[in-house]
Design a protein that fits this description.
Layout (H helix, E strand, L loop, with lengths): L1 E8 L5 H12 L3 H10 L2 E11 L2 E10 L2 H6 L1
Antiparallel strand pairs: 1-3, 2-3
Length: 73
């Protein structure tokens, strides 16, 4: 298994847009999201929001079989 983890700082005022996007992935676009993960060979995906010292960040964690496919995400 291969893992890619990254932290992305959110621009001020963009956290609500990110939350809506994640809600879409969990709701109306869930089937599309799952199909994309399968195409990329991702077996597990996690996304967290958290407060950082100077704003909010998104932490993303992907697990997959093929490191090349993960690097293309």
């Amino acid at each position: 298994m291969h893992v890619i983890a990254t932290t992305i700082p959110l621009r001020p005022g963009k956290s609500e847009a990110w939350r809506r996007w994640v809600q879409d992935l969990q709701g109306s676009r869930h089937a599309e999201y799952v199909a994309a993960l399968r195409r990329w060979g991702i077996r597990q995906a996690r996304i967290w929001f958290r407060e950082a010292g100077d704003g909010e960040v998104v932490e993303i964690y992907f697990v997959g079989q093929d490191p090349k496919a993960l690097s293309d995400v």
